[in-house]
Amino acid sequence: MLVLSESNSIVKNFIGELRDVEIQKDTMRFRKNLERIGEIFAYEISKTMTFSNQKITTVLGEKNTQVLTDFPIIATVLRAAMPLHVGLLNFFDKSDSAFVGAYRGVHDKSEHFNIEMDYISSPDLTGKTLIICDPMLATGKSLEKAYHGLLRFGIPAKTHIVSVIASDRGARFVKARMPECKLWIGDVDDELNEKSYIVPGLGDAGDLAFGVKI
Q: Which of 44, 47, 69, 213 is the most buried (most CB within 10 A)?
């Protein structure tokens, strides 16, 4: 697991603005910060990927360089992850995409809930590098369901999971239940409240990016 906030970088500014209740009132800035963090994750993940030699011809000569061999498939857990997805695509600009509609069902009186999944589409994942992005990793249940739903489209060679803010419990759940996946996190919070929301977290990322749902 790699946590970006464990070392000082500009990403701390972006995460701080995502959390700030005053800055959150600017929905365009909220989306832009998610997008910028997605770009930073893409840059960091690219360091782990395979590159091949290529000769480039310029107007003045030739240069031997290395380029990314295979672009990953980027899967988004709708709807909150869409700006994060855009940031990853800005850097992995030749990537195909997958989309998963996974969300919390109705909470019962004891605040228990099931994860509902009513939509999924993906290209063939066989032997590919897969990146699954979801800005908030609370319990880990929706990510687990999304991941296993995607496996019906083929078994990836490598899977990376990207979340901006995770709970310690959610991160431990993913590492235990999906040890084959590499976890990339912006920042980790210690608590989940009685409704399984991350504390202090930032609130509902989907609502902050796109408006309150009914």
A: 44
178, 136, 176, 130: which is closest to 156 by C-alpha? 130
For residue 60 the two structure tokens come to 């003045």
Q: How far is CA 28 from the centre of its chain?
A: 19
DSSP code of residue 114? P
How many Cβ atoms sit within 10 Å of the Cβ of residue 158?
A: 17
- For position 50, what pLDDT does the model report? 95
3-state secondary structure of 2: strand
Instruction: Show the CA angle centred on residue 116, arms to residues 213 and 1, nearest 5°.
Output: 95
Give which of 37, 43, 26, 73 is closest to 165, Cα–Cα.
Answer: 37
Residue matched to tokens 């695509």: 89
- What pLDDT does residue 172 have? 97
Give the pLDDT of residue 171: 97
Q: Which residues pair with 111 in a beta bridge?
A: none
Report the C-alpha gap between 20 and 36 in whole angstroms.
Answer: 16
What ranges make up the beta strands (E) of 93-157?
97-104, 115-121, 129-133, 136-137
Q: Mean pLDDT per segment of 10 residues, for the chain of length 214 residues?
A: 96 98 97 98 97 97 96 93 97 97 61 71 97 95 92 97 97 96 97 91 94 81
164, 169, 175, 176 alpha-carbon torsion, rounded to 10°:
-160
